[in-house]
Amino acid sequence: MIIALDAMGGDNAPVSTVHGAVLAARESKHKILLVGQEKVLSEELLKYHKRYDLTSLNIEIVNATEVIGMGEHPAKAVRQKKDSSLSVCAKLVADGKADAFVSMGNSGAAMAAALFYLKRIEGVLRPAISTTFPTIDGSCLIADMGANVDCEPAHLLQFALMASIYSEKVLGITNPRVGLVSIGEEPSKGNKLTLAAYELIKNTNLNFVGNLEGRDIPASKADVVIADGFVGNVILKFGEGLAEMILKLVKKGLKKHPVAWASLPFLWLAIKDLRTKVDYNSTGGAPLLGVNGVCVIGHGRSESKAVKNAIFAAANAAEHDLTHEIKAAVEKYSVNAQSEKTNE
């Protein structure tokens, strides 16, 4: 697989992006295109020539003269900066010169670039950002995570279709359980959006387990969790905050009760496992589902480990022909989508 990496995107770029690319190249056979300012990237890459044999790494630098900052207006920046590292990444995929692209930069701009250059898959109403969320038995996939704060029922139906395919084909979960976030388990509970979406999702061949309350998500009651982008983003940020609070409480408890330090060697493995579960660096990035190509968007604060894992996630999605699988599923339920498009 050929993966284009926005090497100038992110709070820690290009240090973390170049290092992440080096790590990914050492651990795989993927070709990585480092997209950005050639002089800057060449100098950064040379820092590793004593540690690694750079000639054996399948890395190529693709020059892009402009950079889209984290605070810039997404759509405006993509339109005006056509030679930005992010725009060039998207164009490489659109032109068939790369199988996927990864960015740790401005997430709104990454989505705008994907829509501008790759376009939506025919029949897809709204692309969705999905990401894994830690649960008691592993993790689940949540969609949408913030790309669409205002949704229609047909949007949630398509989020369910696309996320279910990603969960099965890329994450390897057989017949994933799909749940809809609501305020009660009963089909009659919810608002106008969730009530209508419930009926649409119920009438598919998805393994729909019905409504999920907030507590059901970490309890592993579904493999795929569906919500509009507003609710999905709140769930994600609440989960991140809760995890940080738990870790801080453990540290505070150890300081308050010095005798507890004696048990630290036994607690450490559990604490380490918890940190891994909630660490976005382990996940890598979130796939943008519904565009004509593979795009993985990472956290702006990502370190090299996250960059490496995002590259692997993008390659995995491309290898499983995710775009084709989603297109087939959307076509199957195009009647629902078309009726919603008419109402917009």
From TrEMBL:
Its main location: cytoplasm. It is an enzyme of class 2 (transferase). Its EC number is 2.3.1.274. Keywords: Acyltransferase, Cytoplasm, Lipid biosynthesis, Lipid metabolism, Phospholipid biosynthesis, Phospholipid metabolism, Transferase. It comes from the Bacteria. It catalyses: a fatty acyl-[ACP] + phosphate = an acyl phosphate + holo-[ACP]. One of its GO terms (biological process) is fatty acid biosynthetic process. One of its GO terms (molecular function) is phosphate:acyl-[acyl carrier protein] acyltransferase activity. Pathway: Lipid metabolism; phospholipid metabolism. It is found in: Cytoplasm. GO terms for cellular component: cytoplasm. The keyword Cytoplasm applies. SUPFAM superfamilies: Isocitrate/Isopropylmalate dehydrogenase-like. Homodimer. Probably interacts with PlsY. Belongs to the PlsX family. NCBIfam families: plsX. Catalyzes the reversible formation of acyl-phosphate (acyl-PO(4)) from acyl-[acyl-carrier-protein] (acyl-ACP). This enzyme utilizes acyl-ACP as fatty acyl donor, but not acyl-CoA. This is Phosphate acyltransferase. The lineage of its organism: Bacteria, Pseudomonadati, Elusimicrobiota, Endomicrobiia, Endomicrobiales.
